User: Fold these one by one.
Assistant:
Number 1:
Amino acid sequence: MNLISISGPPSCGKTSVILKTIEAFKEKNLAVGVVKFDCLYTDDDKLYEKAGVPVKTGLSGSLCPDHYFVSNIEEVVQWGLARSLDVLITESAGLCNRCSPYLKDVSSVCVIDNLSGINTPKKIGPMLKSADIVVITKGDIVSQAEREVFASKVQMANSKAVILHVNGLTGQGAYELSGLLYKDSEQLTTVRGLELRYPMPSALCSYCLGEKRIGEEYQLGNVRKIDWGDEA
Amino acid sequence: MRAEDLKKLSIAAIIKRYPFVATYLEDKGFDITDTSDRTLEELLSSFDEEYQEEFAFNPEQFMEELASYIKDMLSFLGEEHSGIHSISILPGKDKSGKTEGFSPLTIEKGEIVAIVGPTGSGKSRLLADIEWAANGDTPTGRVVLIDGEVRSDDHRFSLNKRLVAQLSQNMNFVMDVTVEEFLTLHAKSRQVEADEVVTRIIEKANHLSGEPFLATTPITSLSGGQSRALMIADTAILSQSPIILIDEIENAGIDRKKAMELLVGEEKIVLIATHDPSLALMADKRIQIRNGGIQSVSKTDEQEKQILGKLEEIDKLLGDLRKQLRQGETLSLPAE
């Protein structure tokens, strides 16, 4: 089984890109399944069901979604193997822009859209910087110049990645993406022992543990303050 | 240059050798004026572990990325702007598996080719095949040759060697900047000196559009026609891609004939997906698509060219009337 981790900011078009890529995988007679990670709510599972692929949803609730991802990825892989999938796609939203759920030796794709502003590639951390492939969406509604400028900003943020434009509505580029992603030789049976490409942000303060009150006396653990310098 | 050799050099030396690295470092938030006499290694080692963790910064990864960026930029800058002379499309199969009915088609730079066919007939797939330089590895099985050769994977994946630039009726400007700032940004992203090229693009765009705009006009307040004109002039002059794909351009507010002349003059290969007869007839050849495959390729013949003459008269009439409207005049037909 091939494992592919796809992530990207909310509403950038991950699900559309994945659905179009699934069509391309199906043309090649590959069995695909999806595990969707989200925070509070998702109904993308219905879209995947409609596309006729096995889907499982994981909602992290009050936990950091990417911490939740890592804690569950091995079980996810076993779920895919039990269904004899050729390709298992995990989809997750990088909600704080600092996280990156990518594992070493597992294909990783970051999806980002042309409408998100030209400084966005700089603002997104390892999720963009350490991806193997960066997919840029929503190119059909902005000018050629903006596409080129945006892509060059992505290239500056991650010069090693293959950068592809995919149209989530028409599927243009999705067939090519599917070709880049699937490797017949790669047969994963477990992710136990693999490592994250990048450590996740750490936080363990009183607010992580349910504190609601404001004020210094309630702030315990790993707490950090803005450096105000001389400003009063 | 390898990452290990690179880090032994001072920042100033690196920038002197590869001027584009200055933008790269600035973009990453490095203060290059302050640290110019330090070597890159020294600079990188000044970031302590806490900083690295805070900002998700990995010095080794950074070095590799910089080396790979320099490599990409060098290969990009080393190539001539219009390095590609022709593309050839070799037949594949349509949706029912039938071999396509045309002999290998070669399109030279400066040529205009129209693509026609019902919605869903496979126009997007043809364009995707061209963009990807298909080598029998797409659903159609077509092969697309660039200057008579199969394109290498390196070129296929390189951002700076994208074959196709696209223009369509649905595209908009979304950045909140003036025309001049916008074009400067585009020029900078391509490592092109901005001043002259920006002036030239604005001049050309105003030549295409009925209503002139200024360098200081915000791009989001341009009219539909002005936007289209600016997009075409910018793509013709500043886009690196040798092939321009146009997906239907409405007649309003832009002189399409001049637009085609501009693109051809810049030695682009122009593909137009359209059902507008006057646009389609500006093309030298026409590709008919049906059921996922190219059904036939035809040349625009003399009889058709005569129709084009008539259509141009109608277009001109419409244009004149539009101008009268804009200027608050009473509409009148020219005397017969």
Number 2:
Amino acid sequence: MQQAQDVDIIQSVLQGNKAAFAVLVERYQSYVFTIVGRLIPMREEAEDVSQEVFVKAYLSLAGFKGTSKFSTWLYTIAHTTAISHLRKSGPNVVFADENTMAAITDNRTAFHQPQHNSLRSAVNTCIKLLPPDDAEIITLFYMAEQSIEEIGVIMRMEPNTAKVKLHRARQKLKDIVERSYGKEKTLLYRN
Amino acid sequence: MTQEDKAYKNVMDALEPEQPSMRFSKNVMDAIEGMEVAPVSKRYVNPLVVKGIAAVLILCILISIFVVFTAAGSLPEYTNKLPQHFSLYLLGINIVLLMILAERWLSSKKRIQDLQDNR
């Protein structure tokens, strides 16, 4: 249903109704921003790159063949733009390695701050502690509702590789939650 | 879906994506103000050229195989040092490689079909 609406909007934009593109921006901005944000932690930088994603999408809109969902096509642009940005940024961007992340989570800072009093923000914080590609794959699967095949297309990997990577990312997330919650780890299995 | 998968799905469903600044949409629309959708670019390489090159390469391979099998008696000395049935082994390896290539091509076709079905 959403895909049909997206295609109608795209047709409208291609026929010269530039304002219709704002509907697509409104619809997908938070997802694109979140996906880019998983790779680029600085908020301002992530926002600039997200804007670049939509500009690129607009310019190449005529190239969208409709062989996949519009969201998959857009998230592929988001992924490649963020990766290119990181390559250009070079050594200025440094991600924490697993030991550093473990140390961070051991301190249980994630859950002892007042703003992290809800399960939603707690899990969100844990996702941010994952390595960027793991955080991205978790976001694509659970938040952006992309299938394993679609994630394979977005992240340029075989579906089986994406499946294994998602499983490992989920395991790492579980470890971080357990380390941070301790006895409260069962919180993840409620609802 | 396993129990753990369901549990994760439940927790993750409660999550919401992060929101960019309020001006995000306006900034994008401002950025594309003077721009136009780029026309679909033509393919850089004519597919006929690619198919032509592939045909020449396949022809070369076939001629080589034919020469190896028909002119076995007049092959250079060093070929005698090769293991017995070497050319057959080589042929076998090539067949296996062809099968791997065909499998990859078919699976990529299936992936594209699955994506179209999931639209």
